[in-house]
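hey m, so remember when u said the tokens were messed up on ur end? i reran from scratch. heres the input so u can diff it against urs
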Amino acid sequence: MTKLTGVTHRKVQVPSNKERTAFLFMRLSGVFLLFLAVSHVLVQHVVNSVHDLDIQFVIERWSSVTIRGIDLLLLFFALIHGVNGLRNILEDYVHSAKAMKVINVLLVVFLVISLIFASVAIITFNPGT
């Protein structure tokens, strides 16, 4: 085996940017979503009968702050993960930088409005009114 001479070693600094953060978020949120979504499906459709899912089931389930928190986490991770995935797909097909900026703004507006409305619905859910 021959030894290489004159080889220098250097550390590569990877700059932190929006794409790298989005890439890391997709990986981490995917892992969280795996556990949150599978547990949600197990509770909603395996442990409890699908035929028993009605407003009374939701009232009993959402009487716990912990369950509401878990559902909020599922909501946030799923929506952000999905919108980020859609953004990645659109970047493959939209080649105009201006059009992509407009699309990104529209996606963020859609995401924020969706998260606000859904969060308010979960947090303020009160079947008595």
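this time it looks ok to me. DSSP finds four helices and no strands in the chain. if urs says something different then somethings off w ur setup not the seq
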